Amino acid sequence: MTDSALTPDLLLQGYASGIFPMAESRDDPDIFWVDPRLRGVLPLDGLHISRSLARAMRRSAWAVRLDTDFAGVVDGCADRADTWINAEIYKLYGDLHRNGFAHSVEIWEDNQLVGGVYGVTLGAAFFGESMFSRRTNASKMALAATVDHLRQTGFVLFDTQFLTPHLASLGAVEITRRAYRRQLEHALQQQGRFASIPPSSLQEVVQRMTQTS
Hints:
- It is a single chain.
- This protein is of the alpha+beta class.
- The chain has one domain: Leucyl/phenylalanyl-tRNA-protein transferase, C-terminal domain (Aminopeptidase), CATH 3.40.630.
- The protein is 38% helix and 24% strand.
- It is built from 8 helices and 9 strands.
- Strand 5 and strand 6 form a beta hairpin.
- The longest helix is centred in the last third of the chain and has 15 residues.
């Protein structure tokens, strides 16, 4: 289904009902709703951090930041040969960010953005949209920092939309549409507080994650 009059409010209504928007490509102006039969989710207590990734995080001098360059993260996610992020989606998520419903978790090397994750928040649900990396492991570190931050701020659902081999290697799983709707209903009855605390360092993230794995 296409919707040429999609607004930020309609976008949030879609997420709350269990669907999300996509475009076929950056050059296709049409946006359609997606309602997968099987949904990817990343259990917030189930992130898999390999020994090599944990070691890299402990040794890293990179910084974790929240919402300091949301547009830059979306740009990074769209900077690939095939992307579903068209101009309208770019604008809509920028509007959601300005209204406090979309956030980015960013990895910085000095003053350069090298990786990140962005998504939409409603209640205690985080709808992960995309991630990118310009350095080895930067997107994995951003994802780990995102999971840690969500756990610290009262979230209970991390929706990854689809399950890719990359996400599966990090602990994401597939659940049925019915099971997802139950988890979503539960999450929407609570309230996460994404901006309530500053981000943790990568060293703090890996310490907590390895203690609970």
